[in-house]
């Protein structure tokens, strides 16, 4: 049975609506995954931070903010961050399927550099 032009238009409009709904679901899933990834990253990093500096656990939010502002604002910490960022970027450019190499030895050296 042949469809009239009106029926074809309605059919195509239904397909468009279905595809738009599918797009919305996929965007929603992507945003949800990004939120989960961010939460996981924040928890891991703060856990690492607190394990390295347990005295910060008892600071108030304002004290912690002040501590971070004063520590991160130093020229040394900015240089270190720039170096680490550059290393991560160059490693990602060399092999985009893998993240930058990571080892506990590197963390200890970086920690010593940041403290010294």
Automatic annotation (TrEMBL):
Q: Where is the composition biased (Polar residues)?
A: 86-102
Keyword list, A-Z: Coiled coil
Q: Where is this region: Disordered?
A: 85-116
Superkingdom of the organism of origin: Bacteria
* Keyword Coiled coil applies: yes
What InterPro entries does the annotation carry?
DUF3847
Coiled-coil regions listed: 2-39
This protein is called what?
DUF3847 domain-containing protein
């Amino acid at each position: 049975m042949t469809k009239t032009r009106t029926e074809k238009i309605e059919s195509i409009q239904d397909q468009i609506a279905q595809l738009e709904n599918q797009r919305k679901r996929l965007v929603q899933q992507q945003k949800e995954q990004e939120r989960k990834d961010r939460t996981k990253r924040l928890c891991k990093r703060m856990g690492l931070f607190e394990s390295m500096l347990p005295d910060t656990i008892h600071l108030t939010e304002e004290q912690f903010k002040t501590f971070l502002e004063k520590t991160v604002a130093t020229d040394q910490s900015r240089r270190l961050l720039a170096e680490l960022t550059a290393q991560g970027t160059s490693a990602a450019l060399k092999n985009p399927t893998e993240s930058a190499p990571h080892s506990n030895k590197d963390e200890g050296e970086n920690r010593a550099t940041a403290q010294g």
